[in-house]
Amino acid sequence: DSGVTQTPKHLITATGQRVTLRCSPRSGDLSVYWYQQSLDQGLQFLIQYYNGEERAKGNILERFSAQQFPDLHSELNLSSLELGDSALYFCASSVGAGTSNQPQHFGDGTRLSIL
Amino acid sequence: DAKTTQPPSMDCAEGRAANLPCNHSTISGNEYVYWYRQIHSQGPQYIIHGLKNNETNEMASLIITEDRKSSTLILPHATLRDTAVYYCIVRVYPTFTSGTYKYIFGTGTRLKVLA
Fold this sequence. Notes:
By secondary structure, chain A is mainly beta. Chain A is built from no helices and 11 strands.
């Protein structure tokens, strides 16, 4: 158990819809990272938040957005969903801002299926 | 692009040591090497990381060559539960737009432990 909690575990929805994925980091971790893993792309970094502020962006689409709340949990919002958005979405957390050598710890992911 | 190169697959007999190689010839002097594994579609599990000295923990040992251009993850007594995809990661430096170190996952090594 990594200590990172993601909900829901599975999500099935239709094209054009909007969903919200939730992540609670390990106790004491201030950074939250979001990743997408699809069959043809592997694990791709999307975005990082540190102590409530956006810290870094990766390959995140404009239809996707995220935020980190004062209690440090984070939500990833995906809108105008397309079939190609079907993937596993992982959240990871780390103690610092991502500039130290401390590793990231991953949750078990949310499997999103678009019908 | 990932800064590491790994063999796509390896087999190992149960009870034997599994030695997983990784090349990272462009690693900079102060950058760490991280190892994770992913079992089925679970979240990546942190294993170990190191800079230049050999490292050991309850899961594995990490041997880094003196020139730091390659490393080997050693699972001393592989079990069937160690069957997974193993990722060797060297973080990407911050850029003006990214602001933080990023994990770039390659395709990893698919380790199959055989009974």
